[in-house]
Amino acid sequence: MKNIFKFIYACLIISFASCDDAIDIDQPGRLGADNAFQSVTDLQSGLLGSYNFLDTTFEIGWTSAMTDECYRGRDNGGQNTNEQNFNINSSNGYANGIWSSYYGAIGMANRVIEASASIDRNEDPVAFDNIVGQAHAIRAFSHFGILTWFSTDYTDDNALAGLLLTSVPDDIFAQIPRSTNAEFYAQIASDLDGAESLITGSSGVTFMGTDFINALRARMHAYKGDYATAASYAQLVLDSKPVSDAAQFTAMFNDADFTEVIFSLERSIGDSYDGQGTAGGGWAGSLYAFIDATEQGGPFMEMSRSVYNILAGTSDVRLSRSLNVGESIIDPGYETNDNFINDDVLLVYKYPGGTQPLLNDLKVFRSTEMHMILAEAAADAGDYAQAGALVNALRGLRTASALDIPTNEADAFGMILDERRIEFLFEGHRWVDLKRLGDRGNRAMDRDSRECSFLADCTLSNSDFRYTLPIPVSELTANDVVQNPGY
Fold first, then answer.
1. Cβ(304)–Cβ(63) under 8 Å?
2. Phi-psi domain of 459 (left: phi exceeds 0; alpha: psi -120 through 50; beta: other)
3. Partners of 264 in the beta sheet?
4. Alpha carbon 58 to chain centroid distance?
5. Using alpha carbons only, how large is the chain's radius of gyration in Å?
6. Both ends of the chain: CA-CA distance in Å?
7. Residue 167 CB neighbours (<10 A)
8. Residue 160 β-bridge partners
9. Pairing between β-strand 261-265 and β-strand 301-303 as defined by DSSP bridges
10. What is the C-alpha separation between 313 and 351, in angstroms, rounded?
11. Separation of alpha carbons 232 and 334, rounded Å
């Protein structure tokens, strides 16, 4: 996914190619779609351009700042102040980043799909099919990302999602209304079916293959509340991608083990995301520190005490994977220390970087999510013992002690939410999990009370309008769409 900026710039020109300006001048040298895509190799370049738009750091950063994962760090200079205080509007940078990333990927995927009609498939049939199939998979994933972050209710088919784009607009000034969840779900399912019919094999972890397709299906149906279908797809993935053990889990976040990685976004030196300190632009580690994940590395967002207090004193491998234990400064008297922000330094360590500090691949789908979907499905079906057994099986793999088996729905979903909180810490799941399961599990945002004393509010109701992102002001300005409630 490297060295494709020239192609992306060319494709940006393509996006304007069908638009006549006020005096109908055809600029010399303007690159049309027919010239940009002339071979299977060109399609592959376009596909890489679509992949390159995908970036989950905005989701990770938003979730860390908005929920109970993080509190402002010792070297914070105002970063995430609005998010920490729940002061959100349509100018929010995270909302804009998520919207732009997914629609950038959708736009490029549409160009690849449309251009494929004019390419000779016989040039390389297997490569051709895989390219077009992955373009459909990217479009499905991106549309589901928009639905996830901008729909008010995943289980309501009539709720509005975003703009459903399945072609390259002839008129870049066209007014496109928001479509419903039902319309989004139907298109996503269609794209995934198309992808499945074209893609050969699993395609590794940095390209979308059959495991990715089934993982996305499992997540989508779980969010919809269709757990029987979600469980069937989750099990298909687990049959080929087992959950990692403690050592593999630790190595995974050093980009050294891929046992349970279904799909990740590669981040490496020299790629288009290579930029020190660009929080929210490809470097997950730079969402928390300026230089590196050490005590002297400029920590501006740190692990919340509410999370640390859950893991402190346990043998759970997720503590040392999420917190730089050796470099952190633990103040046992933080609750009565007015200067605890300087004396209690809890360093985020999920993205320490390898060859470059703070630069790691972004894990989008892991087998553990599929395992936890099975637990959700069991709880939804009333099999609370099975739900608890699945959670405890994961805890065993993470060298954590077993918990009591739940006996009712609230306890079962509460147990699942508690486990997901620490398993997917700093991976962009917590905000979505509270939105979709918080009430069923009798759980809400759980910020530390001492940290809350310096914030405007301590928690949000799971039904609060801020559990849906605002449509960005840039979209509202260009397109007459309905804004989400509350903004």
1. no
2. beta
3. 363
4. 8
5. 22
6. 37
7. 9
8. 180
9. unpaired
10. 22
11. 46
Residue where the block lists tokens 């006996």: 407
Q: 457 is written with which tokens?
A: 């509010």
pTM: 0.92
Structure tokens at 248: 């593999």
Q: What does the pLDDT profile of the chain (487 residues) look like in tens digits?
A: 333 333 333 343 333 333 333 223 333 333 455 567 899 999 999 999 999 999 999 999 999 999 999 999 999 999 999 999 999 999 999 999 999 999 999 999 999 999 999 999 999 999 999 999 999 999 999 999 999 999 999 999 999 999 999 999 887 778 999 999 999 999 999 999 999 999 997 667 999 999 999 999 999 999 999 999 999 999 999 999 999 999 999 999 999 999 999 999 999 888 888 865 555 578 899 999 999 999 999 999 999 999 999 999 999 999 999 999 999 999 999 999 999 999 999 999 999 998 889 999 999 999 999 999 999 999 999 999 999 999 999 999 999 999 999 999 999 999 999 999 999 999 999 999 999 999 999 999 999 999 999 999 999 999 999 999 999 999 999 998 999 999 9
**Phi, psi (rounded to 5 degrees) for 244:** -75, 155
Question: Residue 401 has which token pair?
Answer: 């002690």
Tokens read off for 202: 């699993």
Tokens representing 296 are 């002297």
One-letter amino acid of 8: I
User: Are residues 295 and 345 in contact, defined by beta-carbon separation less than 8 angstroms?
Assistant: yes
- If 0-12 CB within 10 Å is exposed, 13-18 middle and 19+ buried, where does residue 29 land? exposed
Buried b (16+ CB within 10 A) or exposed e, 357-391: bbbbbbbbbbbbbbbbbbbbbbbbeeebebbbebb
Return phi, psi of residue 61, to 5°: -65, -45
**Residue among 304, 299, 305 nearest 351 (CA):** 299
Please count the other Cβ atoms lying within 10 Å of the Cβ belonging to residue 273. 20
DSSP 445: -
Cα 202–Cα 206–Cα 210 angle in degrees, nearest 5: 20
